[in-house]
Structure formats: structure tokens, C-alpha cells
Amino acid sequence: MRWEAQEPKAAGSEDALLALQGVVRSVRTPEFAGITFHEVIAKSALNKVGKTSGMPFGWTINPYRGCSHACVYCFARKTHTYLDLDAGMDFDSQLVVKTNVAEVLRRELARPSWNHEHVAMGTNTDPYQRAEGRYQLMPDIIRALAASGTPFSILTKGTLLARDIPLLKSAGQDTEIGMGISLALLDPDLAHRVEPGTPTPKARLELVSRLRDAGLPCSVMAMPILPWLTDGDESLDALFGALAGAGATGVTAGALHLRPGAREWYLSFINREYPQLAGKYAQLYSGGSYASKEYRQWLAGRVNFFKKKHGFTSKAEFMPLRKAGAESGQAAAKAGGDASTPAASGASAAGKLSADTLF
Ligand code: SF4
Which keywords does this chain's UniProt record carry (predicted)? Predict the structure, then answer.
């Protein structure tokens, strides 16, 4: 695959998708310029997570495949190649929509064998990407999970989540929920370059505050920290200070992880936008998907220093599940984070995150 020369290739890509089972139609609308939605009839909604994955949840739901948030570092890019689409522009613009996902989910949750394990959303692609404004799949998914008493978590960069805060508050009375916002940098210009389809960092900080004001827990996934772009003391200090100010109940940070798919796309971005860093990146990631051990140890030290400075516990865990209202307002974080509960976040990753990549 030649990454440098990739262009959208709608016609061929759609042909590939239409060859897949379950595609009902492909749609383009002026409101979503450059994006094609491939509506499919899904046979299943719940995906089992392998016990060896190391993930703290047993199941996931992905109402969408591909993600218009278009983060250049996205771990999930490679999963698009399973659809005979590419992990670059196709991942950003050829989106698969499981239009019947809630209906299928309700059937699956009604099975006597359903064991009410933690269901995670946002672990592969973002459930509150822009498409959700058009398809509105999440409200019925949340209702189905809450009605069945199934604990669930949502990780997102999408401020569209605010639409569902009343519903989440209600769901949080029936079952335990975990909320996570993904935010690892504050510079709006840099965010526009590396996460071009996402709401601004300021908008995501405001979303953290709105969730906390609503009495919902809200962790932040400050990942990935980008070598030479967001790993400086000034950036980390400002980031963790802003997260504490917004009321985040915990933070998990992690160094950039470049698994296949993400690796090629991200490094082509560095070559194009920051050619002076290309050699440094090649050296830092010469051992594979992970930055060198020395770099990760150094970064863990800086992250933990600034987390402590702003009142966050240094422990890194995934989103803790709680009933809504277990904490009130922003009190905990205004005091500098919730030291009584672990820091938390989900992973925007189909990939496995080892303990030494999260801190
Ligand atoms: S990192 Fe998350 S928000 Fe960004 S493109 Fe991937 S799934 Fe979407």
C-alpha cells in the first residue's frame, strides 16, 4: 500500500463494501460533504472481548465502523482493511452504519444467557462522531442497556454526547455507568491538524464540565501524548491543569502507540507536516509499535509529576463504573481530582495497551 499517494477512492471503495453482506444502501448528503454512509443490517450488536485481551470489559458495541473524527494516530484504522477498504482516507470517509443495532441489541440482552458484564462503547470507533447526529443510534442503545440492568461505559471525543446527558442521568439510576472524554492536547491549531474532524479541545473541556455538573462521573483519556509535539512540560502542565479545572474525576495518559495501520498514516503526516521530526520518530519507534522504553519511562515521570501537581491520583485504570449522582457536581475535581477513586479511562483502541504504556 502506498500511503503517500492516497486519495479518496469512493467508487472502488463502495464497490468493495456493496459486495459485503448486509449493505442496504450507500448515502451521501450535502451536510456531510466527502463522506459516504454505508447502511447495513447487522446480525449482532454485542462483540465478545477475548479474555486474553487484558481489557476490563467483556463486551463492546460499535454502531459505526470508520470514524470521521479522522485522528491521524487512530489505532482502529487497520480494522477498515477487514472491509477491503483502506486504513487512511477510507477510514475517515467511508462509514459503515449499523442502522438496526439497537433492535438487535435488545434481543441479545433478553437472552437468558446474558450475564450483564460491562459493555464498552468507543473502544474501536467513536459512537458520537458526526454520523450520530444523523442516525441517532445511541439513545436506543443506552435505553436498552439500562433497561436490562447492564453496566456500560462510553468513551468519546464527540460533544454530541451532551444531547444524551438527561438520558444518561436516568440510565445511571438503573445501572452503573462510566463516562470518558478523550482529550490529550489543548492547542486548537495542532488539534485541527492531528484530529481534524473532532470538536475543539475547548468544547471537549466544556463537555467534561457539563457531565460533572449533571452529577455524572467523567474520566479523561489523555492519550496519545505525541513525542515532541505535546510532551513538553508546558503542554502537560496546561493540560492537567485544565482537566482538573473542568472537574475530571480521573485521568489516564499514555504515549503514542503506532500499531500497523496507524503507523503508516501517522508517519506520513509527520513527514508532510513536521519533516524535521521524521528522523527522530524513525529512531524512537524503530523497535515496533511502542516508543522506546527509555522514552516511556521519561514520559511516565513527567505525566505523574503533573498529575500529582493538579491533584490527580497517579494510578492509571480504565473508566470506573458508578451509579449517577454517586458524586455531586464538580466538588471532587475542583478540589483537584477524585483521590478516593482511581484515575480512569477507556482506550480508543482495538489494540492491547500494556501497563507500561498507560500512566
Ligand atoms: S481515535 Fe477515536 S475519535 Fe479519533 S478517529 Fe479513532 S475512533 Fe475516531
Answer: Iron, Iron-sulfur, Metal-binding
Residue 344's nearest CA partner among 129, 106, 112, 182 is 182
- pLDDT category of residue 54 using cuts at 50, 70 and 90: confident
Strands 36-40, 94-98: pairing kind: parallel
Least confident of 48-57, 155-164, 268-277: 48-57
Q: Which residues pair with 247 in a beta bridge?
A: none
Q: Which residues lie with the beta carbon below 6 Å from any ligand 1 atom?
A: 67, 69-71, 74, 76, 125-126, 157, 348
104 residue type, one letter:
V
Note if the pTM is more than 0.90.
no
Phi and psi angles of residue 225, each rounded to the nearest 5 degrees, phi first: -80, 125
Q: What backbone torsions phi and psi does residue 252 show, to the nearest 5 degrees?
A: -120, 130
List Cα–Cα distances, 136 to 105, 141, 254, in angstroms: 15, 10, 31
Please give the helix or strand (H or E) that residue 38 lies within, else none: strand 36-40
DSSP string, 57-91: -SEEE-SEES-TT--TT-GGGGGGGGGT--TTHHH
